[in-house]
Amino acid sequence: MDLKHNLTSLAKLAKQDGIRSALHYGLSRLGEVREQTLERNYLVTGCGGSGTTYAYRMLYENNIRVSHDRRLGRDGIVTNACDGTFVSVYDYGTRNCNEHIFCKISVKQFRKTLLLVRNPLLTIGSVRAKWNKNDNVWRHILNSIGPPSPNDHDLLLYATKYWIDWNTRLRPVASKTYRFEDILENNGPFLNEFGIKRPATKQVPPTASSGTKSYPTLEEIQHRDKELADRLAQRAFEFGYELT
Length: 244
Known about the structure:
This protein is α/β, with parallel strands linked by helices. The chain has two domains: 1-32, no CATH class; 35-238, Rossmann fold, CATH 3.40.50. Helix content is 42%, strand content 17%. Helix 4 crosses helix 6 (156-170) and helix 9 (218-224) packs antiparallel against helix 10 (226-238). It is globular, with a radius of gyration of 18 Å.
């Protein structure tokens, strides 16, 4: 990125999240993936398509200064880039630009970790659409679970593997799990985790960042890989979802 872009980003960060976050961003632009030890209060995480964008907007609109994916906020971060051991702070990839990981932060640096989950079939459809749209799979996933195989059928099976693997990794490190659908119905219990003892004063509409309306069925996954579909159904049931 050019100097003007970086200076503009630094100024914006300094205004929004303070000098420390601006300094963190500036160091990240050196291009080196480094491990940081910056303690924060909150880590809200879930695999891609689980509602992290919505959670970030709701918290930020209610004065909880978390960031989303690309930097650390004063109070923490909401991100899908957590493999259960480290959070990857990263810049998004597109067709013309590979995802860039700035640094990694141990989950132990956060005082509270909350896991977001969403109906897996909706999540898988959303993730697949994002990968196809950008013509790449997120680097922080490739680094953790390896690349998709030739048999992953237009990324459907790989997105299914991702949902299973990511939630299996994250559940043991989370102090509590929240279903996205439950937050939409009643956000009070989720907000209580952040010391907000009331419903959100500012509501935000759900965000469909993938823009897709095409979602797989369990039967479609079973047709391609029955064992994987059975694993998905079992893991989904553990989170309170019955896939039929």
